[in-house]
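To illustrate the input format used throughout this study, we show a single complete record. The first block contains the structure-token representation of the backbone; no residue identities are included at this stage. The design step must infer an amino acid for every position from geometry alone.
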């Protein structure tokens, strides 16, 4: 979590925010996550875990 300084009134680039945006970009490649047609939330959650699996395995190397 990146803390924002309250004493600055103009735009300041927050470090490491690109990591979250990159992860969302990788998740957008999975078609099943683009539409949420599941009845149960646990099915949507399991689809998200399956989509995250290649990213997590890549980080282990």
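Output of the design step:
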């Amino acid at each position: 979590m990146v803390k924002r300084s309250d004493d600055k009134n103009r735009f300041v680039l927050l470090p490491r925010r690109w990591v979250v945006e990159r992860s969302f970009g990788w998740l957008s490649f999975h078609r099943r996550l683009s539409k949420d047609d599941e009845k149960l939330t646990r099915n949507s959650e399991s689809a998200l875990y399956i989509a995250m699996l290649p990213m997590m395995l890549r980080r282990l190397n």
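Structural context for interpreting the output: Helices lie at 17-27, 41-60. The CA atoms of residues 35 and 44 lie 10 Å apart.
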